[in-house]
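Sharing a chain and its predicted structure for anyone who wants a worked example. Both blocks are below, sequence first, tokens second.
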Amino acid sequence: MNEIYEFLKACGTYYLATVEGDQPRVRPFGTIDIFDGKLTIQTGKVKAVSHQMHANPKIEICAFADGKWIRVEATVKEDARIEAQEHMLAAYPELKGMYRAGDGNTEIFALVSGKATISSFGGAPKTILF
């Protein structure tokens, strides 16, 4: 899990895919944290991505850096604890202009189960289950 975290953190921006009905939706994301032993991401409850993850908790993340890419397949679950929100906002203080722990909008999703594959053009892929 730490390897997944470090890869995504180093990328800065990764791409999160969700499903809305039968239509895939992909957007850039930038938050990744480890809280209570789980990888977590952050969004706002008012955003379409939040509604999509509640309706269908299967997501994929993809990112590229230094000639390697990662694809993360996961199921997400909301972590509504204020502590999870505080932890994420401490890791990303630049978000404090838009979000506050307990504001009714800040939302943390834990990646509760999944698989990450790190690939490159020259080597065998590495799979990490979590």
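Comments welcome. Strands lie at 14-20, 23-29, 33-35, 38-44, 58-65, 68-78, 106-120, 126-129.
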